[in-house]
Protein 1
Amino acid sequence: MKKSLILAMMALVMASCSAKDPKVLVTYFSASGTTKSLSQDLAAATGADLFEIEGAQPYTAEDVNLGNREARAFKEMADKSFRPELKESPKNLKSYDVVYIGFPIWGDAAPNIIYTFIEKNDLKGKTVIIFSTSGSSNLTNSFNKLKEQYPDLNLVEGTTLKRNPTPEARQAVIDKLKAAIPAK
Ligand SMILES: Cc1cc2nc3c(=O)[nH]c(=O)nc-3n(C[C@H](O)[C@H](O)[C@H](O)COP(=O)(O)O)c2cc1C
């Protein structure tokens, strides 16, 4: 009895030593700041590192001018196979267990640069939690398009932050995204 109790206690101690927290990276693309601000708060809430996905050619306000159908964003949305170049990729991606990818929804899909990011970085074996900000669209269609394109990745549907949220709604998004991190 005494011996089995000691063995059980040793097993507990060993388990707690090996159960380390997963290493988390929040990556995001943001053309006008909304996804950036959410990503910063998410990284703070999860103790994650932060990486901004940027175009080699930066996105200007005119590039995302909704009043101009000739704007860069609309041209990119019209050519699903176009892959805008990245400014850079995250260092030490290998060391992360969980990678969030956040973006503004463009035309009910992830912007093309998110596809570039996924194709230029090795995310196999990691938990990849997808999230977004949007005017009113839900994440599901954008998520399903990614899932269809990259069936071998472990993509997890997070949620979207819709325009003009109450502080409670914003916090609920952060809480939901935080809860999506699997226990290691
Ligand atoms: C080109 C373009 C297309 C958009 N398409 C959608 C859309 O399909 N659904 C939606 O709800 N919002 C859409 N939006 C609104 C953005 O998703 C929303 O403003 C987002 O929060 C912007 O994020 P950012 O400031 O990080 O760039 C679109 C915005 C742009 C510029």
Protein 2
Amino acid sequence: MDIKGLYTASETRYDQSEQLYARCGRSGVMLPKVSLGFWHNFGGVDPYERSRAITHYAFDHGITHFDLANNYGPPYGSAEETFGRLMDDDFRSYRDELFISTKAGYDMWPGPYGDHGSRKYLISSLDQSLKRMRLDYVDLFYSHRFDPDTPVEETLQAMVDIVRSGKALYLGISNWPLEPLKQAVEYLRAHDAPLLIYQGRLNMLHRKPIEEGILDFCREQGIGFIAYSPLAQGLLSDRYLEGIPADSRMAKDHFLHPWARTDKLLQYLHELQAEGETHGRTIAQEALAWILAQAGVTSVLAGASSVAQLESNLHAVL
Ligand SMILES: NC(=O)c1ccc[n+]([C@@H]2O[C@H](COP(=O)([O-])OP(=O)(O)OC[C@H]3O[C@@H](n4cnc5c(N)ncnc54)[C@H](OP(=O)(O)O)[C@@H]3O)[C@@H](O)[C@H]2O)c1
């Protein structure tokens, strides 16, 4: 499909709704248990038609939630631009069937106003994001990280005002430690803009949200939890069993270092592979199923560099 406006979503995309969707905390929002992340593979450096094919596959199979951030790319902003192009090319008529998130909190533009947690940064960043994404509003806006130097009320009031202005329907928090998260929950609830969801790194190799009580807190408070980097950027799959493929994130990207491929990891992967075989699952499917089995987890936010990867990942739930 490469002609603008001619994409028609599969009519069977909601056929497996019962297995696919989960309620996000105590809210009215249902999210797919496997959501699609735009951190990698959707930037200006990536082939548009491949990004496009991945999103078509996702939506055709009921994956309605796409997760972005202001600085996803590279270059920064370009994943949102890719999404904006996809909106115009294919998804405009499906806008109300999509749940789109973006974030601000990490470095985005030079100078004192393009980073951290000020009102100035969050509000102008979302305005920029909406332009790049060619949207009037996002479904979900996140504070991408906690900023200890900005009064927490300033960040939170900016988020409340974003919802009031209609530029986001719901609010999310990502990577905040437990204590400020508790403050945020209280503040947002008191200002009638309750926290919908927490986004944290959770996978079999990184269990901090469980160990630090964040997942339990969210569950008790009726807040959804979405696990990012559920495959530890690909480590928890068969990708690196035999070496480092030239087209892999580890070979191409500074976010995943070759030193992560240790003998200990390989041994763990072989054990996981053997266990997966008893359930008829791949390593990646085993890793995703483990996260989804944790009480309080709403969705795994998976990345994919091909349709085949996403297809395989979806089999963790379907
Ligand atoms: N809030 C935050 O601070 C934060 C931080 C990080 C990520 N995120 C969100 O989480 C999303 C996912 O993060 P992530 O990309 O690190 O997730 P991930 O699912 O842990 O890793 C995705 C990568 O794993 C490999 N892979 C995926 N499926 C595979 C399969 N079936 N078999 C073999 N390899 C497979 C691919 O790498 P190759 O490229 O090597 O093929 C793919 O790009 C991001 O897009 C973003 O939306 C949020």
